[in-house]
Write a structure and sequence with these properties.
Blueprint (H helix, E strand, L loop, with lengths): L7 H10 L4 E4 L1 H14 L3 E6 L6 H10 L2 E4 L2 H9 L7 E3 L6 H9 L4 E4 L5 H7 L4 E5 L22 H10 L3 E6 L9 H20 L6 E3 L16 H15 L4 E4 L3 H4 L3 E13 L2 E6 L9 H4 L6 E3 L6 E6 L8 E8 L7 E4 L21 E3 L4 H18 L1
Parallel strand pairs: 1-16, 2-3, 2-9, 3-4, 5-6, 6-7, 7-8, 8-9, 11-13
Antiparallel strand pairs: 1-10, 10-11, 10-15, 12-15, 13-14
């Protein structure tokens, strides 16, 4: 798959209409990523982890494609409800639930929950009696970018006792869930977790609990991310094969977030200041750590930077606009000489970027523009058609 990337011409014309910084999202790319997963991992239905990117147009697109949604709070449920998504299409997958979230779940008919501790059982049973629950187990994966199994996940040996206690409280013990960690590069981590889950399913059956659902979480890497040497189709197909072997009659779900949108959004930002510190030029951009580059801090991510200036490249430093000295985005980046007003493009900005941006120092949040709504999209389609016509001659 080819990542979404604006051309220099498209950046220029968009920046003539929209003040920087702004994000440009490609719904076509989101749909391509969704269909790729459905094609290579057909056994797993999709609960899109909307925390990665809750842009309304993306949510509406995915809902129309048949996706369900992983929600973590009342706010996310309310957003989906406003878009016409029924609660039956949601899973409240935050293992720790607050009162507001539980009230929203009851109001919007969200009846599928995950949990990993006895303290959650009474809360769920009182808020939504008879709800379907999956116990989240801890799994290990040293090849994930972000480990989620220190804070979340019950020890495997406690899982069935938790489901039994939930059942005794009037809840419906539905199944098992796990999450191997974010940006996982290991098929083995999923395969090992599936083996653990299979053993729990068998033990539950022996105890008189018939489990029907397995949620394998998210963690799938951003497709074709810069520097990623991984056959994602082969990875998904290997996991799908293991699911077929171990869980032929089980409903299986996955919760992709980063995978779905990571490569579907670009950031257009401007150089607003230049300075020289030591041997390197510094370029200050109008977006930074407290904005869409928040993933540098929170998500351990490096976003591909593209400069359009001409001339020899030299090691350069890029910083954000805030008054905080930590607001440095790139060091020793090989860039041509830039001047104030030059536009810079950043790709792979679709996940865990704007969603964790702040108004620190009073800077405005970068808006998201839908590429398919812009004349540049129509022009690109026309150019593609012309290229195809010439190739066919």
């Amino acid at each position: 798959m080819k990542n979404f990337r604006l051309t220099e011409k498209e950046v220029k014309t968009l920046a003539e209409r929209f003040p920087t910084p702004f994000l440009v999202a490609s719904l076509d790319k989101v749909e391509e990523n969704y269909q790729f997963m459905r094609r290579h991992l057909p056994r797993a239905g999709v609960f899109y982890a909307m925390k990665a990117n809750p842009t309304p147009e993306i949510l509406s697109l995915l809902a129309g494609l048949g996706s369900h949604f992983d929600v973590a709070s009342a706010g996310e449920m309310e957003m989906l409800h406003a878009l016409g998504v029924d609660g039956s299409q949601m899973i409240y997958a935050n293992p720790v639930k607050d009162e507001r979230g539980l009230k929203a779940a009851a109001e919007y008919n969200v009846r599928r929950f995950t949990f990993d501790d006895p303290s959650e059982i009474d809360k769920m049973a009182k808020a939504v009696p008879g709800a379907d629950v999956l116990v989240r187990i801890a799994v290990r994966n040293n090849k994930a970018l972000v480990d989620l199994n220190t804070k979340f996940g019950a020890p495997v040996e406690e899982a069935l006792d938790l489901l039994k206690a939930a059942q005794e409280a009037g809840l419906h013990a539905m199944g098992i869930c796990f999450h191997v960690g974010s940006q996982s590069l290991s098929t083995a981590a999923y395969e090992e977790a599936l083996l653990v889950a299979r053993k729990l399913f068998d033990e539950a059956e022996a105890m008189g609990m018939h489990l029907t659902d397995l949620d394998i979480g998210g963690g799938f890497p951003v497709p074709d991310a810069k520097g990623l040497n991984l056959d994602l189709a082969a990875m998904m197909e290997a996991i799908n094969k293991q699911i077929d072997r171990l869980f032929p009659d089980t409903a299986v779900w996955t919760e992709p977030g980063r995978y779905m949108c990571g490569t579907a959004v670009n950031l257009v930002t401007s150089v607003i200041g230049t300075k020289t510190r030591g041997p390197q030029p510094w370029y200050i951009l109008d977006e930074g750590i407290y904005g869409c580059f928040s993933g540098i801090m929170y998500d351990h991510w490096t976003y591909p930077l593209h400069c359009f200036g001409k001339g020899a490249k030299k090691p350069s430093t890029f910083g954000g606009p805030s008054c905080d000295g930590i607001d440095v985005l790139y060091r020793d980046f090989m860039a041509p000489e830039l001047k104030i007003g030059d536009k810079v493009l950043v790709t792979e900005m679709g996940s865990y970027t704007s969603v964790s941006a702040t108004r620190f120092n009073g800077f405005y949040l970068a808006p998201t523009i839908i590429f398919e709504d812009q004349p540049e999209y129509a022009a690109r389609l026309t150019e593609d058609d012309e290229v195809k016509s010439k190739a066919a001659v």
